[in-house]
Amino acid sequence: QKEVEQNSGPLSVPEGAIASLNCTYSDRGSQSFFWYRQYSGKSPELIMSIYSNGDKEDGRFTAQLNKASQYVSLLIRDSQPSDSATYLCAVQASGGSYIPTFGRGTSLIVHP
Amino acid sequence: NAGVTQTPKFRILKIGQSMTLQCTQDMNHNYMYWYRQDPGMGLKLIYYSVGAGITDKGEVPNGYNVSRSTTEDFPLRLELAAPSQTSVYFCASSTSLQGHWQPQHFGDGTRLSIL
To answer: Which residues of B touch A (CB under 8 A)?
Structure first.
């Protein structure tokens, strides 16, 4: 059973702080890793994809991948109230693994 | 570029009625998926398709049916609606490039209530 674990939260951070969201996964064959943001009542939207060990930065967002330890994280710098949402981690193995495994999401609250 | 389009956005059904949730994508993606998401919960896969004419069950297929006659369209059929099927339904599509899975593109969802 492939599993993706996330702390459900809520994670509460003050505006301007760094929010750190973590995700662990069980399938060592995982090759593709995604972070989605989901606002209440809306559909998930992609924040970051990462495929190689290390860090990947895009604006205020940094994804970090460590395949040996089987975790992937998302850092949000200079957090804004508009970042308040649920963040979903998704993991997918290569080859014929057609179905990504989603975590249940971490709720982030950025308070002014 | 519309991406993934779902219709209707909202629907109320009576117990025992049937309906089809429509999903179409214009990105020429081979892979399409139907999820349901209950309040405060994660995504649960209902059915998926790897190409026209090929579908398979996901985690929670009971009470649903799908078909994939074209690359673009992947409708979800509810037969004999039950209150337990009250949920938000998301359609998604994706593709693979050079051996790497690309992220899923989601439609805006259909909010379905069974009364």
So the answer is: 31, 33, 41-43, 45, 48, 50, 58, 90, 94, 99-109
* pLDDT value for A2: 83
The 10 Å Cβ neighbour count of residue A45 is 14
Q: A40-83 pLDDT, tens per residue?
A: 999 999 999 999 999 999 999 999 999 999 999 999 999 999 99
What is the Cα–Cα distance from A33 to B4, expressed in whole angstroms? 21
- B42, B48, B109 member nearest A99 (Cβ): B48
CA angle B54, B96, A104 (to 5 degrees): 85
Q: For residue A31, list chain B residues with Cβ-Cβ distance below 8 A.
A: 100-101
Q: In this predicted model, what pLDDT tens digit does every residue of B62-72 receive, in sequence order? A: 999 999 999 99
- Distance CA(B46)–CA(B51), nearest Å, equals 16
Count CB-CB contacts under 10 A for residue A9.
Answer: 14
